[in-house]
Specification:
4 strands, 6 helices, 213 residues, 4-stranded mixed beta sheet, alpha/beta
Length: 213
């Protein structure tokens, strides 16, 4: 949560003046792009998988308590590593929409998240059991068909950053949960958790206080 949500949230705020200053007749828009994930969006199959649990921020009890020991989860419940990751990425998607609602019209900055596919062979899983590190890429390649290479993932992130196809703001871009050759990105619908306006506003204000803004 500190890295994926609070770190992103603070950095995004610090970048806003520079992104706005960069807009000119030669550069008519700036973009702030955050990496999302399918596992945080319960409107997609990958977000419904109950292992260890779906993303759920509860009533933000842990954040309201300042994550002070022994609090380790945003919902105030006992720590679950996989769920903590999903929760943090749900926060990313909620905050992207909140940045769009609060700052797009006044600044012209485009705010988006994206899911490029499952990059199953990186150091992200370095602390996972060796058997998982062996099976997971095979499973994503052959069963879920969600696997993408690091190179393809990077290419897709770059597309959202620079291509004219991605000028709509407040969108979560996806190439689908099951990868197909020549797939075209589309605006993926988001769950009621990600689009909850009241909870997003509360998450925004509690996060501001948490990072000292």
């Amino acid at each position: 949560m500190a890295t994926n949500h609070l770190g992103h949230f603070l950095l995004s705020h610090l970048l806003l003046p520079a992104l706005q200053a960069a807009i000119s007749p030669h550069t008519p828009m700036s973009r702030l792009i955050t990496l999302g994930t399918v596992t945080a969006n319960s409107k997609e199959f990958g977000g419904k998988v109950p292992i260890p649990a779906p993303a759920d921020l509860g009533q933000l009890q842990g954040l309201e308590a300042g994550f002070k020991a022994p609090v380790a989860m945003i919902d105030g419940k006992p720590f679950k590593a996989g769920k903590a990751y999903k929760d943090s990425k749900l926060c990313n998607m909620m905050m992207n929409r909140e940045f769009h609602a609060r700052h797009h019209q006044d600044t012209g900055i485009i705010f988006n998240t994206l899911y490029p596919g499952c990059v199953a062979e990186t150091a992200l899983f370095r602390d996972s059991p060796a058997l998982f590190r062996k099976i997971f890429p095979w499973f994503q390649k052959n069963i879920t068909k969600g696997y993408v290479s690091q190179a393809l993932s990077g290419d897709r992130v770059a597309q959202v950053v620079i291509d004219d196809h991605f000028l709509q703001s407040g969108v979560h871009w996806s190439w689908g949960n099951r990868q197909k050759p020549g797939a075209i990105a589309f605006a993926q619908g988001m769950s009621s958790k990600a689009t909850n306006v009241e909870k997003s506003a509360r998450l925004w204000h509690l996060s501001l206080a948490m990072v000292g803004l």
